[in-house]
Design goal:
This protein is of the alpha+beta class and about 140 residues long. It is built from seven helices and three strands. The chain has helices at about 5-15, 20-25, 35-45, 65-70, 75-85, 90-100, 105-110; strands at about 20, 50-55, 60-65.
Amino acid sequence: MIGDKWTMLVVRDLFAGPKRTTELLEDLHPISSRTLMGRLREMEQDELILRNNYGGLPRRVEYELTERGRRLIPLLDALMKAGQALECNECEDRKESTGYYCDFCPLRRGEKTFVPEASLSVEPKPEPPPIRRPKDDSIVLL
């Protein structure tokens, strides 16, 4: 149910609140629309997410976590803490290459990490706003 490549990332993104398909495609780049739609269908069948179809033109569909899906959040937190303990997430390298920390990085949120403060020699600097990828105006067929 949660072993597929994108499932936990979809749960992570929907934890922040309901999102439209296009928002998920943007946030989960480089996932293809076909893969995302397949994963969303499977998650809906497993009752991890709820699909809200608001109709209209263009069609408006949002996805949100169900109570069952929210039960996966402690697992996400545990995975994040394990990654921090193993020091496998090179946040400074990511910030240098992309210009910002990822949305879920504890350094962005100002939380303490597992690294003792005495070993940190980085002085806090004002964080620039995230640099967004340019919008692609091509049509995404779902």
